[in-house]
Write a structure and sequence with these properties.
Blueprint (H helix, E strand, L loop, with lengths): L2 H5 L12 H8 L3 H8 L7 H14 L5 H8 L4 E7 L7 H13 L5 E7 L6 H10 L4 E5 L6 H8 L4 E4 L10 E4 L1 H14 L4 E5 L6 H16 L3 E2 L11 H12 L7 E4 L2 H13 L9 E6 L4 H4 L4 E4 L2 H16 L8 E4 L11
Parallel strand pairs: 1-2, 1-3, 3-4, 4-5, 5-11, 6-7, 6-8, 8-9, 9-10
Helix pairs in contact: 2-3, 2-4, 6-14, 7-8, 9-10, 11-12
């Protein structure tokens, strides 16, 4: 670039949002060269790309999404529709971390859309579709016949689900094998001499409740154990109510000698309730829990635990939605993580 061309680029004004012009001024390069360097164009040298990226990072440059959308029809946004629920185990942060690690090497940005599962789950999806505010969507808390999946499929919006459906529509998903987890939990408990087992499962509307019930009932049949009802308690019940119910359950003439939980947060309430009734964990009762962070055994080494790698789930979801945007067939973008039992805790 000659000196005349360099002088034609105005100097940046202090306090203004950095633009391609700002980077061009700071590097002495043309605006087109800067733009192509940031897009990793093959005809731009590696040293030039690195210089442009370094200046962009130092300036805090972010692409103007409105401009990108006008030029390309794309937003470069992946929307994560995440429910606001009562959880203490870092599920949300780990999910976001996993997704961000994958998107960090791309032109895509993550936008988290919080939503309460108690309200209409279609609202955030309809908003994204009506405004065209994302190129791809990640949703969770799946139902067997999920209207969000049907709508996004009909509108041809790339998406991936954290969990499975049963509605005859092939779509990308990543899931945890809750059926295998609960079945293996029953097996381990029976091996430890437990026979009266309760299951604290999700709300019946969710797919993973069905999977966990299938695993539980298969386990009870195969290993000759008996179910003790948890009544109306689910993993969505407020923790103080779970604690109170666990205490009442533990004071029955024939209380459960084991409880399987699908929520690490709820498991803390279960432990508090059973111990308030004078029952000792690992002695009179065993509690098996799924967790998204490996610290239940730090506070209660007597517990049996399985860790669901939510960070890895986030990575798989991000890879799948990017591949779907690129046109990869949904049948090729489906994966399930199996349970991995902690080496801590009581031995069988």
């Amino acid at each position: 670039m000659d000196d005349h061309s360099k002088r034609s680029i105005p100097a940046p004004i202090a306090g203004e949002r950095p633009t391609l012009k700002t980077i061009a001024y700071m590097t002495g390069l043309g605006i087109t060269t800067v733009s192509r360097a940031l897009k990793d164009a093959p005809d731009i040298g590696s040293e030039t790309k690195e210089r442009v990226r370094l200046v962009a990072r130092q300036l805090g440059y972010q692409p103007n999404r409105a401009g990108v959308r006008l030029r390309t029809g794309k937003t470069n946004v992946i929307a994560l529709v995440l429910s606001i629920e009562q959880e203490l185990m870092g599920f949300t942060s780990q999910m976001v971390q996993g997704i961000s690690e994958v998107l960090g090497g791309t032109q895509y940005h993550l936008v988290v859309t919080p939503h309460s599962f108690e309200k209409d789950p279609m609202v955030p999806v309809r908003y994204i579709l009506d405004t065209g505010s994302a190129d791809g969507v990640i949703i969770s808390r799946m139902e067997p016949d999920d209207p969000r999946v049907r709508l996004m499929t009909e509108r041809n919006l790339p998406f991936v689900t954290h969990g499975r459906t049963d509605m005859g529509i092939a779509h990308p998903f990543h899931d945890f094998d809750n059926e295998a987890y609960v079945y293996q939990a029953v097996e381990r408990l029976v091996r430890r001499g437990r026979r009266r087992i309760a299951l604290l499962a999700p709300l019946s509307r969710f797919s993973y409740q069905i999977h966990s019930r299938i695993g539980f009932e298969r386990g009870l049949t195969d290993f000759q154990a008996t179910e003790v009802s948890m009544g109306r308690m689910t993993t969505e019940t407020p923790l103080e109510e779970i604690r109170a119910y666990a205490e009442r359950l533990s004071r029955l003439p024939e209380p459960p000698d084991a409880i399987i939980s699908l929520s690490g947060s709820a498991s803390i309430a279960l432990v508090a309730g059973t111990e308030a009734a004078g029952r000792r964990l690992g002695k009179e009762i065993d509690i098996v829990s799924k967790q998204s962070a490996e610290f239940l055994n730090w506070i209660r080494p007597e517990m049996l635990t399985v860790t669901e790698d939510v960070r890895h789930a986030g990575q798989e979801l991000a890879k799948a939605v990017l591949a779907r945007i690129d046109g990869v067939a949904p049948e090729l973008l489906q994966s399930i993580d199996g349970p991995v039992w902690s080496e801590m805790g009581p031995k069988d």
